[in-house]
Amino acid sequence: MELDLDALKQLMTKRTAAIEEIVSGTGYLPKTVIGVATFLLDHDGDLSLLTPKQQVTFERFIKPLL
């Protein structure tokens, strides 16, 4: 899967409420999701660099919002 970095950047800057909403009640913190998104932005969206826990965070929270 090729990641749309522009959509990810927009999610991080203009749609943080969406992140907080999707994380609500799951036991995850919004800053965890934002951290994974920041990592992806810093590494040109290379999903292969994610740890297994980061991959779960991406699949569960970030991917549905993109």
List the helices and strands and how they pair.
Layout: H1 5-14, H2 16-23, H3 30-42, H4 52-65
Helix pairs in contact: 1-2, 1-3, 3-4
> What percentage of residues falls in helices of 4 or more residues?
55-70%
Strand/helix succession = HHHH
User: What is the tally of beta strands?
Assistant: 0
Number of helices: 4
Alpha carbon gap, first and last residue: 12 Å
Oligomer: single chain
Instruction: Determine Rg (CA atoms, Å).
Output: 11 Å
- Look at the structure and give the mean pLDDT: 93
Unreliable residue runs: none
Describe this structure in words.
The protein is an all-alpha fold and about 70 residues long. The chain is built from 4 helices and no strands. Helix 1 (about 5-15) runs antiparallel to helix 3. It is globular and about 30 Å long. The chain starts with a helix and ends with a helix.
Structural key phrases:
single chain; 66 residues; mainly alpha; 4 helices; 68% helix; 0% strand; globular
What's a concise summary of this model?
The chain contains 4 helices and no strands. With 66 residues, it is mainly alpha-helical.
